[in-house]
Write a structure and sequence with these properties.
2 copies of one chain form a homodimer.
Chain A: E1 22-27, E2 39-54, H1 62-70, E3 75-85, H2 91-109, E4 116-123, H3 136-143, H4 149-155, E5 164-172, E6 175-184, E7 197-202, H5 208-220, E8 237-242, H6 263-282, E9 290-298, H7 301-312, H8 315-322, H9 328-337, E10 348-351, E11 354-358, E12 361-362, H10 368-375, E13 379-385, E14 391-398, H11 402-409
Parallel strand pairs in A: 3-4, 7-8, 9-13
Antiparallel strand pairs in A: 1-2, 2-3, 2-8, 5-6, 6-7, 9-14, 10-11, 10-13, 11-12
Function (chains A, B): Catalyzes two activities which are involved in the cyclic version of arginine biosynthesis: the synthesis of N-acetylglutamate from glutamate and acetyl-CoA as the acetyl donor, and of ornithine by transacetylation between N(2)-acetylornithine and glutamate.
Active site (chains A, B): 195 (nucleophile)
Organism (chains A, B): Rhodopseudomonas faecalis
C-alpha cells in the first residue's frame, strides 16, 4: 500500500458543513485492516430521495446488484459502506452477505430493507462476513452525528492516499441548501482492484426521479470523463441522497430535473461531481501528473469523447508524459487508433497551450525548450484540434509511472 | 534503447533457406542510427504477386498510403524498407519522400514505380530525406543475393532485442515450395512509436487475388491476435510476395485461395504468420512473461476475441502477471468491462491449467502454492471459460513491467 500522499492532492481541503437530515458514524470492524476505520453508516431522515449510477461491468459486485434493486423504491434511510472487502465475485454467499447486512441495518435503524443502500470496496473473491456488522451498526446508529464528514471519507479509503471531500452551498428558491460529497478512488491492494465509490448528500427537496435525472446527466462529464488505466471495477458506485429537510426552511419541492428553479443547484451539483472525479484522477496509482485532454473540432461530442479516451488510455501517451516529453507522435497514434473521423493533415496538437504540431506535421514555430519547461509541471493539458466539426470533449487522466507498476505488480514480493 | 535480448527470445533460430526469385541486400544509409544497417532492398523476379494488410489507424504513414495505392496492380519487383524514420505525420513532404524513393528504386531495378513497395519504421514527425537512398539503392540492386535473410531481419529492427525470422517448406503439387518471413516488433525509441512490420516471401505460384485472400484470413489469428499495449502504430504493414518461380520445378499455378491443392501451403503460411506474431509478443517492451489468453464458451468467436483483448490490454492483469500473482479478480474485472455477454456465476478461470475460480467464486480446491510456482514461469496461460456457448479465441500478449515504463518514459532523462 502506498503511504505517501499523492503530490497532486488538493492543497485546500474545505470545512465540511452539516446537512440537515444526514448523520454519520464510523467504526473499525476489523474487516481487513488493522487500526483503522472500515465501516461508514450514514443515517438519513425519513423521506430521503435516492438516485444511483453504477459500473457498466457485466460482472458487478453483490452490493451493486443490491442497490440497483432497491433503487426502484426511490427512498433511503441508511447507507452502509465498508472498505477492506468488495464482496465481489463471491457467488451465492455474496448475495447472502448483502441480505444479512441489509437486515442488520434495517433493524438498527428501524426502517425497511428496501431503504438500505450498500457499497463495499476492497479484496474481491473473498466472502464478506456480514456478522461483523452485527452489533456494530446498532452502535453506529446510536452514535451518528451531523458532523464527521472527514472521518466518513477516511473510513471508505482503500489505497487512496488522501480522503476526498467536496462541498457547496447554493440558493434553491429563497433557501440556502448544502451539497456535500465524499469519494474514494482508484487504489488497490493485493489482490484488489480499483474501485470508485462516491456519495453525494443534500438537504434540497428533490424527488427521486429528478435526482436520478440530475445524476445521470452530471456523471457524464465528471466521473465518466475520468480514467486511470481504462480498467473498470466491478463495484463502481455513485449514489446521491436528498433529505428534503430544506423544505422546512423554505426550499421549494422539486419534482422535475428540468425545473428552472434548479439552475444554480444543478451547476453546484455538477461542480461537486467534477471536483470529486478530479480528486480521483489526482490520486491515480503512482500518479505524478494530472493530464487534461481536450479534443475539439471533432464531428460530434461522442466522437470527441472516444478520441479523448483513446489518448487518455494510451500507455504510450501516459508514459511519455511521465517522462516529461511532449510526444505528439504518440498523440497522433492514439487519435488514429480511436477509429473516429480524423484527417491527419488537419490535425493540430498542443501541450499546455504550446502548439507542437499543425496541418499534419511538426509545427516549425515551436520552441523545444519552452515545451520542455511546461512538461515538468504537475498539470499537463493536451489539446487536439481535429478541424472537422464542432464536437468538443474533455477527460482527465494521470501519467503511467513505474510506481503504478510497483503498486499493482510488486505487492507479492 | 534496450540492449539486453528479451528473456523470451526463441532459443532455436532456424537456418533460412533461399527462395527462388528473391534476392536481398542491406546497407547503412545513416538515416538515424550509427554503425548499423538501416535499409533493406528485396529484389523480386518479374511477375511476383503481392498482397498486403495495413494498420487500421485513421492517420497512417506515407509509406502505408503508398503501398495501399500500389497494391491494386498486384505485382512487385522491389521492397524497400528503412528503419530509423517512419515517415509518418510528415505532411506533404512525406508523400514527396515516398514518391522520390519509389522513383529511385524503380530506376535502380529497371521496373515500374507501381511495382515498388515501401515500409518505414522509426521516428515520426521528422521528414525522411529520400535523397539518402540515391546511389544506395543502385548499389544494393547490384549486390542483392539469395541469402542474407538474417541480415535483412536485422536491418529493419528498431528497439527489437532480437531479429525475427521464420521458415517452412511444404509440398505444393509435387514441388517443394519455401516460405520465409521476417518481422520487426513493438519497440520504440524517442520519440518513436511501436510499429510492426512483417514480410513473407514464397516461390509458390499464387495469383495476387489468392495471396490477398490468404493473407487477410491468416492475419486474423496471428498478427491481429497479438497486443503489447493496445496501441496501434500508424505504420503497421504486412506484405506477402509470391515469386512463382516454383512453377519451373512443377508447382501448379494457383489462382484461387480456395484451391484444395493449397491445403498444406495454407497451414504452413499461417504457421509462419503465427510464429512471427508470437516473436513480436516475445519482444514486447520490457516483457518478462509471454501471456496466452484463451477464452472459451463465449457466444461467438468475435465475442471471445473482444473479451480476450480486454484481458490482454488490461494494465491491472498485465501488472499482476508481472508480479507473478494469479489475480483472477482482475481477470473477472476485464471480462466484465468487455461489454460482451458474460454471466458471473458461470465463469471459470485457470492459470497454467490450474482452476482458481469457478461458478462465480473462488475454486475451493486450488492450491495456492502450486499456482504460485506456475506464476514464476516465463509463459503464462490464462484460460477463461464463460459457459455460454461455443465461441473460442486466443490472443497473445506480454506482462507490463517497470521496464516498459522506463523504455517508454525514461528516454528523456
Amino acid at each position: 500500500m502506498s503511504s505517501a500522499v499523492s503530490p497532486l492532492a488538493p492543497t485546500d481541503v474545505p470545512e465540511m458543513p452539516q446537512i440537515a437530515g444526514v448523520r454519520l458514524a464510523t467504526a473499525a470492524a476489523g474487516i481487513r485492516y488493522k487500526k483503522r476505520t472500515d465501516v461508514l453508516l450514514a443515517v438519513l431522515d425519513p423521506g430521503t430521495s435516492v438516485a444511483g449510477v453504477f459500473t457498466k461491468s457485466k460482472c458487478p459486485s453483490a452490493p451493486v446488484e443490491w442497490c440497483r434493486a432497491k433503487l426502484k423504491g426511490g427512498r433511503a434511510r441508511a447507507l452502509v459502506v465498508n472498505s477492506g472487502n468488495a464482496n465481489a465475485f463471491t457467488g451465492k454467499t455474496g448475495k447472502q452477505s448483502t441480505a444479512q447486512t441489509g437486515a442488520i441495518a434495517a433493524k438498527a435503524l428501524g426502517c425497511k430493507q428496501d431503504e438500505v443502500f450498500l457499497a463495499s470496496t476492497g479484496v474481491i473473491g473473498e466472502p464478506l462476513d456480514a456478522s461483523k456488522f452485527d452489533g456494530v451498526l446498532d452502535k453506529l446508529a446510536d452514535e451518528a452525528r451531523p458532523d464527521g464528514w472527514m472521518d466518513a471519507a477516511q473510513a471508505i479509503m482503500t489505497t487512496d492516499t488522501f480522503p476526498k471531500v467536496a462541498t457547496a452551498q447554493v440558493k434553491l428558491g429563497k433557501a440556502k441548501v448544502t451539497i456535500n460529497g465524499i469519494a474514494k478512488g482508484a487504489g488497490m491492494i493485493a489482490p484488489d482492484m480499483a474501485t470508485m465509490l462516491a456519495f453525494v448528500f443534500t438537504d434540497a427537496p428533490i424527488s427521486p426521479a429528478a435526482l436520478q435525472a440530475l445524476l445521470k446527466t452530471g456523471v457524464e462529464d465528471s466521473f465518466n470523463a475520468v480514467t486511470i488505466d481504462g480498467d473498470t471495477s466491478t463495484s463502481d458506485t455513485l449514489l446521491a441522497f436528498a433529505t428534503g429537510d430544506a423544505a422546512a426552511y423554505g426550499a421549494p419541492k422539486i419534482s422535475k430535473a428540468s425545473d428552472v428553479r434548479l439552475k444554480a443547484f444543478v451547476k453546484a451539483f455538477n461542480g461537486i461531481l467534477a471536483n470529486l472525479a478530479e480528486q480521483v484522477a489526482r490520486d491515480g496509482e503512482g500518479a505524478r501528473k494530472l493530464i487534461e485532454i481536450i479534443v475539439e473540432g471533432a464531428v460530434s461530442k461522442p466522437s470527441a469523447r472516444k478520441i479523448a479516451m483513446s489518448i487518455a488510455n494510451s500507455p504510450l501517451v501516459k508514459t511519455a508524459v511521465a517522462g516529461e516529453d511532449a510526444n505528439w507522435g504518440r498523440v497522433v497514434m492514439a487519435v488514429g487508433k480511436a477509429g473516429e473521423p480524423a484527417n491527419r493533415d488537419k490535425l493540430s496538437i498542443s501541450f499546455n497551450g504550446i502548439r507542437v504540431a499543425k496541418a499534419g506535421a511538426r509545427d516549425p514555430s515551436y520552441n523545444e525548450k519552452e515545451v520542455s519547461a511546461e512538461m515538468k509541471k504537475p498539470e499537463i493539458q493536451i489539446k487536439v484540434s481535429l478541424g472537422l466539426g464542432k464536437g468538443r470533449d474533455r477527460v482527465l487522466t494521470c501519467d503511467l509511472t513505474k510506481e503504478y507498476v510497483a503498486i499493482n505488480g510488486d505487492y507479492r514480493s
